[in-house]
């Protein structure tokens, strides 16, 4: 009989939770040591705080100016940060203007555009990546060439096409021309190319059709790419100015990028009411960013790596 294996030296007196926390404590201790060894760590922290304040200060100034009484003027910039403050500007603009309608239009247009873009780009990229048909390479080259053409160069034929289809001054006219995304097709196509072919071949042997391969295998694996495309499509649609400005005639269908300049042009010599309108338009965007900042950062890093 061989000798029994030696019993490992385990401190049974220590609770299990403390033993499990030891690696984390070591990591925290090592990071603290690295910070203490870095002579430039305080400088980096100071620069980061200064840059953060540089970006936050305009937002704070906008909110404080929007709270000033209507017609308030000053020669000293510091007076914008001092009382008096009032919320009457917000109630007046909400009741007397169409800014809430413009915000609703921007949100609906951006949301539907994002959903349709994801559907179209995912189907097109999956077909180019995994299906066999003639002229597949040529079609993909057309998508690559589409990235080289600026959007402004296609405005006139796009407007003529929308006019012939009676899409001018409608939600469909705002949404349908914007769902084509060559960049989205290229990103998703490169992602689908990276999926092992054995996975699709084994599914085909089990009787999966192309549609099932698409929505049961490809789409669940492509969630990071779809999230990145959704983020940038939504932001691009929300900030789009040129096409809504050309295709919308009635004020009720304005989006925020079109409605705000029209509103601000009526108060070219004033600060308070235009700042109040801009603050109302910025609040939804700030809330969305605070809620989805992790996804936005991941989307930026994903497109930077995969693009």
Automatic annotation (TrEMBL):
<keyword id="KW-0813">Transport</keyword>
<feature type="transmembrane region" description="Helical">
    <location>
        <begin position="107"/>
        <end position="128"/>
    </location>
</feature>
<feature type="compositionally biased region" description="Basic and acidic residues">
    <location>
        <begin position="11"/>
        <end position="25"/>
    </location>
</feature>
<feature type="domain" description="ABC transmembrane type-1">
    <location>
        <begin position="103"/>
        <end position="292"/>
    </location>
</feature>
<keyword id="KW-1133">Transmembrane helix</keyword>
<feature type="transmembrane region" description="Helical">
    <location>
        <begin position="271"/>
        <end position="292"/>
    </location>
</feature>
<comment type="similarity">
    <text>Belongs to the binding-protein-dependent transport system permease family.</text>
</comment>
<dbReference type="InterPro" id="IPR035906">
    <property type="entry name" value="MetI-like_sf"/>
</dbReference>
<dbReference type="Pfam" id="PF00528">
    <property type="entry name" value="BPD_transp_1"/>
</dbReference>
<keyword id="KW-1003">Cell membrane</keyword>
<keyword id="KW-0812">Transmembrane</keyword>
<feature type="region of interest" description="Disordered">
    <location>
        <begin position="1"/>
        <end position="36"/>
    </location>
</feature>
<dbReference type="GO" id="GO:0005886">
    <property type="term" value="C:plasma membrane"/>
</dbReference>
<feature type="transmembrane region" description="Helical">
    <location>
        <begin position="45"/>
        <end position="67"/>
    </location>
</feature>
<feature type="transmembrane region" description="Helical">
    <location>
        <begin position="171"/>
        <end position="192"/>
    </location>
</feature>
<dbReference type="InterPro" id="IPR000515">
    <property type="entry name" value="MetI-like"/>
</dbReference>
<dbReference type="GO" id="GO:0055085">
    <property type="term" value="P:transmembrane transport"/>
</dbReference>
<feature type="transmembrane region" description="Helical">
    <location>
        <begin position="140"/>
        <end position="159"/>
    </location>
</feature>
<keyword id="KW-0472">Membrane</keyword>
<protein>
    <submittedName>
        <fullName>Carbohydrate ABC transporter permease</fullName>
    </submittedName>
</protein>
<feature type="transmembrane region" description="Helical">
    <location>
        <begin position="213"/>
        <end position="235"/>
    </location>
</feature>
């Amino acid at each position: 009989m061989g000798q029994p294996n030696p019993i490992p030296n385990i401190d049974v007196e220590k609770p299990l939770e403390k033993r499990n926390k030891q690696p984390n404590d070591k990591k925290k201790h090592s990071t603290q040591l690295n910070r203490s060894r870095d002579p430039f760590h305080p400088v980096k922290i100071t620069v980061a705080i200064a840059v953060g304040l540089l970006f936050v200060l305009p937002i704070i100034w906008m909110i404080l100016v929007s709270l000033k009484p209507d017609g308030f003027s000053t020669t000293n910039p510091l007076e914008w940060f001092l009382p008096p403050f009032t919320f009457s500007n917000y109630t007046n603009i909400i009741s007397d203007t169409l800014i809430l309608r413009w915000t609703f239009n921007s949100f609906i247009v951006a949301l539907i555009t994002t959903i349709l873009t994801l559907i179209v780009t995912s189907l097109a990229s999956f077909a180019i990546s995994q299906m066999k048909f003639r002229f597949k390479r040529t079609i993909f080259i057309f998508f690559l060439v589409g990235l080289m053409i600026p959007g402004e160069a296609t405005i006139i034929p796009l407007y003529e096409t929308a006019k012939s289809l009676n899409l001018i001054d409608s939600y469909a006219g705002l949404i349908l021309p914007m769902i084509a995304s060559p960049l989205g097709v290229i990103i998703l196509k490169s992602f689908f190319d990276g999926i092992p072919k054995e996975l699709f071949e084994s599914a085909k042997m089990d009787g999966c059709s192309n549609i099932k391969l698409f929505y049961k295998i490809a789409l669940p694996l492509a969630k990071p790419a779809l999230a990145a495309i959704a983020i940038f499509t939504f932001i691009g649609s929300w900030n789009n100015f040129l096409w809504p400005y050309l295709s919308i005639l009635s004020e009720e269908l304005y989006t925020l990028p079109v409605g705000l300049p029209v509103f601000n042009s009526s108060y070219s010599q004033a600060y308070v009411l235009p700042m109040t309108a801009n603050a109302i338009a910025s609040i939804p965007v700030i809330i969305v960013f605070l809620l989805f900042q992790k996804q936005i950062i991941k989307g930026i890093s994903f497109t930077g790596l995969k693009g």
